[in-house]
Amino acid sequence: MSQLTINLEKCTGCGLCIKSCATDALHKENNKAMVNENCTLCGICIDSCPFEAISIEKENLEEVDLSLYEGIWVFAEQQKGEILPVVYELLGKGKELSLEKGCKLTALIFADEVQCNIQKLISYGADRVIFCEDAALAEKLDENYIELFDTLINKHKPDILLFGATGFGRSLAPRVAARVGTGLTADCTLLEIDKESGLLQQTRPAFGGNLMATIICPNHRPQMATVRPGVLLLQEENTSNEGEVIAVPMPTIRHNHIEILEEVLSGEINTIADAKIIVSVGRGIGSQKNMSLVHRLAELIGGNVGVTRSLVDIGWSQYENQIGQTGSTVAPKLLIACGISGAIQHLAGISNAETIIVINSDPDAPIFSVADYKVVGDCVEVIKKLIATLED
Length: 392
Hints:
The protein has 392 residues and is of the alpha/beta class. The chain has helices at residues 16-20, 44-48, 85-101, 115-123, 142-156, 167-180, 291-300, 309-313, 344-350, 379-391; strands at 3-6, 26-29, 32-35, 54-57, 72-75, 78-79, 82-83, 105-111, 128-133, 160-164, 184-188, 190-193, 200-206, 211-215, 223-227, 244-247, 277-281, 304-307, 334-338, 355-360, 373-376. It is globular, with a radius of gyration of 25 Å. Its cofactor is FAD.
């Protein structure tokens, strides 16, 4: 196991490392720095030590024979017996990646009942479907699913494994990665194959969405990622597709620490990510009172109101309406962007909109670069004229 090591001969007891530690993992004994169980191996103390007295001793991990791993897998999550839309988005991207790598695309579907959805997965591009039907899978308990993934990954050795960044996917994927000893990139917005190395390039927002980081997993397999719903294009279904279907048994559960006592379902929620028409607004709206105009325009055209992060931060709207890397990624048929400059994290959140109308007083605003129709003018005045026209 990796651990932080302090060379007591070099340590002078200056205390700089103790001041730099955010987890109170360092203290002083006999005028020497000591480490305790709070250490997270972040490495900040190493940079703070001017005497090079601190280092991290990494465990010798067993080398993985990467040549044994092949194929792309997509976890087909179900909810109330229906496959989630993000699965079909992942299959479309998975098919594209599999053609680049010259390998098969496999869909994994585990539940108490899955038969009715198998052909649907093949229609959306899966060359093979591995399924398991078992009563233990009726309730989405990570522990039950992990055993299946562990067994199948060790047997079939996939090169790439993709999950939707749903509530369950975000819970399950890291536990699977930890069990099989590989890395995981969460909340990806872009997946590509590096033409030279053949590695999966996994791009996600970093530093609060202010920049995009591309991450690779060169030494362990499978290469794992969760992908946000709505960021990948949905490919057309082809009902003439054919594929292999493999049934697998439910393995023995090693641990069962959780018991479901009661399941309470919330009502149906229509989120901004599902909207077909969106009127999106930023700081260019001027004042909070003008938000009523935005809601009226959205009402007249049968749409939802979306906002930038800045409006959520100042309390003019709720987080569930936020669009962008740190909010929801949307793919409506029509998006009207009002008073939005077009920061990179916001543009990434609207990149899959079918038609974008931009209203902005600044003709050089970055958001105009993604516009299908451009209106240069005060967004409040333009919205008022649109409302007047629609109400006539």
